[in-house]
Design goal:
319 residues; alpha+beta; 3 domains; 6-stranded antiparallel β-sheet; 16 strands; binds zinc ion
């Protein structure tokens, strides 16, 4: 079977959700139960969203579908909180999610609420920011980092642009931050984290003004995110969801706060490709990097599957 259907795409994605809970809770049993229940509802919603976020095409190239991801996430959340289809309640629940951040390889996006005028009425609308790059400037060089070792460079003095693995660009820019591995790694990570945090803080502040106008007095804030959580997060494409200020508890003075990350990690499972030989007309299966391969249209995950299709092992790449 060809590896093009969604079920198989899912099987190569592993979902890693971890959370920072920052809730003011008493040790009441009922509240504990409620907390666990809320955790479950939110985690489910994030898992649903992240499945929609990452898509793999036939060549296992990753693309993001963030619109689908947030639609799925919000609908799952409405459904888990039993308000699905009730527009007013959906909107109210949505106000407790000030931001959703999608961290892509070469930049990030923040999904936030704006107030817009429509037919003389003020209504809430969710918008994505444009992609915000991980940029850093030093000594006339502008760097654009990625979640891996790839970097984009722009030299302001010469107007020269370069891109590539930083290790390959080192010799070209001997006096830059590329020349020392630990310096590069430190600045890269710090830039990515600071940039995401700064923008999130800004949009959370904006959200505070909006929420106030809609009767929510809770003050939203960016929770402290541990370095290790950040490092794990910026290793992969991920989605960060802040669900904060949701009132619960007997007195109504306790707030349920959760900062949840959903990460998508693409585990490259081994793949084989079947192709008809031009010399003897028989079908052979090859490893991913075989020079005999013309195209990679027919992909299988095991050698047994290839054999079942009547293909023989290639003598060159010896799969
Ligand atoms: Zn081969």
């Amino acid at each position: 079977m060809k590896l093009t259907n969604l079920a198989i795409v899912f099987s190569v994605l592993s979902i890693a959700t971890f959370v920072i809970i920052d809730a003011k809770v008493n040790n009441l049993c009922a509240q504990e139960k409620m907390k666990i229940e809320y955790n479950r509802r939110i985690d489910n919603a994030i898992d649903d969203g992240i499945y929609e976020l990452v898509e793999l095409d036939n060549n296992r190239k990753i693309s993001l579908n963030k619109e689908n991801a947030v639609n799925m996430l919000m609908n799952s959340l409405y459904s888990n909180f039993n308000v699905l289809g009730q527009k007013v309640l959906e909107e109210k629940l949505g106000l407790y999610i000030p931001i959703i951040t999608v961290i892509d390889r070469d930049g990030f996006y923040i999904y936030h609420i704006d107030v817009v005028e429509k037919n003389g009425e003020r209504v809430l609308e969710r918008h994505w920011t444009d992609k915000i790059p991980y940029s850093y400037e030093k000594d006339n060089l502008i760097y654009r980092f990625t979640l891996d070792q790839y970097v984009y460079l722009y030299d302001k003095t010469t107007n020269v642009r370069s891109k590539g693995l930083y290790t390959d660009l080192k010799s070209q820019y001997p006096n830059s931050i590329l020349s020392e591995d630990t310096t590069f790694e430190h600045i890269r990570r710090r830039t990515i984290i600071n940039q995401i945090e700064d923008y999130m803080r800004e949009y959370i502040n904006q959200h505070n003004h909006i929420a106030q106008n809609f009767g929510i007095t809770y003050e939203f804030y960016l929770p402290q995110i541990e370095k290790n959580d950040w490092y794990r997060t910026i290793d992969d494409i991920s989605m960060l969801v802040l669900f904060q200020g949701y009132p619960y508890g007997i007195t109504g003075e306790d707030f349920y706060n959760r900062y949840a990350f959903g990460g998508a990690r693409i585990t490259k499972s081994k793949s084989y490709y079947v192709e008809k030989s031009r010399s003897d007309g028989r079908r052979y299966y090859h490893k991913d990097n075989c020079s005999e391969l013309q195209n990679k249209d027919e992909m299988y995950s095991t050698k047994e599957e290839c054999a079942k299709e009547g293909a023989f092992p290639c003598s060159k790449c010896k799969p």
